[in-house]
């Protein structure tokens, strides 16, 4: 049998109290992952 490769399936997004964007993901095996994107210093995207 081969090695297991985690496939990160998106579980959703949230925003922390500090304004950081948090991405939640999980693998079918039960492993969970969280990635935090720092938004400090970012410029808002222009509205079209």
Please identify the structural class as seen in this structure. mainly beta
* Gap from first CA to last CA: 51 Å
Number of helical segments? 0
Unreliable spans? none
Count of discrete domains: 1
Average the pLDDT over all residues and give the rounded result.
Answer: 87
Beta-strand percentage range: 35-45%
- The H-and-E topology, N to C, reads as EEE
Spatial extent as radius of gyration: 15 Å
Could you describe the largest sheet, including whether it forms a barrel? Answer: 3 strands, antiparallel
Report strand order across the widest sheet: 1-2-3
Helix content: under 10%
Number of strands: 3
Overall geometry: elongated
């Amino acid at each position: 049998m081969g090695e297991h490769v985690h496939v990160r399936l998106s579980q959703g997004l949230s925003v922390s109290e500090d304004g950081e964007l948090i991405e939640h993901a999980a693998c079918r095996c039960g492993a969970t992952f969280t990635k935090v994107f720092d938004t400090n210093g970012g410029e808002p995207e222009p509205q079209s």
